[in-house]
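Supplementary notes (optional reading)

For those who missed the lab, this is the record we used. Protein: GTPase Der. Length: 437 residues.
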Amino acid sequence: MKPIVAIVGRPNVGKSTLFNRIAKKRVSIVDDMPGVTRDRLYWDAEWLNHEFTMIDTGGIEIDSTDHILTQIRYQANLAIDEADVILFVTDGKAGVTFADEEIASILRHAKKPVILAVNKMDSIKDAHEIYEFYNLGLGEPTPISAANLLNLGDLLDAIVAAFPDKSSEADDEDQIKVAFIGRPNVGKSSLVNAMLGEERVIVSDVAGTTRDAIDTHFIKDDISYVLIDTAGMRRKARIEYESIERYSVMRSLRAIDRADVVLVVIDAVDGVTEQDKKIAGYAHEAGRAAVIVVNKWDLIEKDSKTSLHFTEAIRSELGFLQYAPIAFVSALTKQRLSRLTELVKFAADQHAMRVSTSVLNQVVEDAVAINPPPSVNGKRLKILYATQAGVKPPTFIFFVNEPEAMHFSYTRFLENRLRESFGFEGTPLKLVVRGKK
Ligand code: GDP
Ligand code: GDP
C-alpha cells in the first residue's frame, strides 16, 4: 500500500502548479470516471524510490455556493481522515491570511504529520517573507517556488521522511479483508451495522496505526474478518463529505486495493448504474473476489420469477462478473443477511484455493482433447504444461510452443474448463501464456 499525501491550501496559492510538478501520472482507472478526471483528484507520484499517491483536496468542490471557509474546512478534514502526510501550501507573496490560519487551526489537531510549504518564493530576496509562517504553529516552513522549481527536492525529502514505517503495518494473512462498495445511499452503512449486530460476532476497533482505526475487525465462527474503511459507515454524521459521489468513487478504489473480497452493493430499486459497472470493473481488474449484494430487497414487489429476472439483468449488465454469487438481502428487515458472511467466507476460500499440478494438467489435457486449439496465422498451439503460480486471485501459467498462437477465445475456453472442474466461484482467474524457454 502506497502512502497518501493530501495537498491542502486556499485557492491560488499554487497547489495545481505544484501538483503538476510532482505528479507522475494519473491513476489510469480514474481516467474514465466521469467527474474525477477533470478535477485530478488522485495521482501517483514517486521520489527517490518512494512511491506515493497524492490527493488534491482542492479538486473536491463541495458546493459552489458554499463559503470559502466551509470548503477549506472540508478539505482539511478530508486530508486528516485520508492522508498519511498532509502538505499544506501557502503563498509567500500574499503572506499569512485568515484562511491560512483557519486551515492551520484544524491541522494542528491532526495526529498526522503536516508539511508546511510557502510557495512563490521565487528568488533569494524573498527569503525573509518566510518568518511570519512560523506563527501558524506547524513547525518549520519550507520555502519553495513551484513555478521556478526551487527547493522542491527539499520539500519532497520532508514529505518522504514523514511516511509511516512500513514494517509497523502488519498484514495478517489469516484475516479476510472485506470492502463494501457502492454508491451513496445503497445501504452500505446499514449492511455493515447489521452484519456487526449479529449475535455471534465479536467486534473490535483496533487501535494502532491510523489506517487500522478506520477498519472494523470481527470474529465469527473462529474466522477473523476486517471490514475495510468503515469509518464513514459506522460514524456517519462526522464525515460530511461521504455523500459526495466523486469522492466516494475514489474512496471505493482505495478500499478495493486493500480487500480480498469486494461486496458490490446495488440498490434493488435503481438496479446497476454506470458507476457500479466501473467500480466493479476495477475490482475485477484488480483480481479481487466479488459478491454482488442486491440490497433493499424488501422494497421490491415479488413473484416467483422476480429474483430470476434480476439475476439475468445483473448478469448482462455486469458481464465480466459472471463468477460472482448474487445475494438478495435487506439490511432493513435483515432478510438473508446471515448468508452474507457465509458467502464472503466462501468467496475468500475460492480466491485462495490451490489445485494440484497433476490434476490441473489432467484437466487441461482433457480440455484440449475435447476442443483442440485452432491454428492462428498458420501456427498450431500446443500446451506443454500448466501450473498454478499463485493465489488471490488463482493464477495459472500455461507453457506453450507459440504464445502468439493462443487466441483469447481459447483462453476463455480454458478458463471455463477450470471453473467447471474446480469451482472458483466468486473469484476472477488469471491465465498467463508463456513460450517455452
Ligand atoms: P491553486 O488554486 O492553489 O491550484 O493555484 P494555481 O496552481 O492555479 O496557481 C495560482 C497562480 O499562482 C497561477 O497564476 C500560478 O501561475 C501562480 N503560481 C503558482 N506557483 C507559483 C510560484 O512558485 N511563483 C509565482 N510567482 N507564481 C506561482
Ligand atoms: P450508504 O450511504 O450506502 O451507507 O447507505 P445507508 O446505509 O446510509 O442507507 C441509505 C438509506 O437507505 C437509509 O435511509 C437506510 O435506512 C435505507 N436502507 C438501507 N438498507 C435498506 C433496506 O434494505 N431496505 C430499505 N427499505 N431501506 C434501506
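If you only remember one thing from this example: The chain has three domains: 4-162, 175-352, 357-435.
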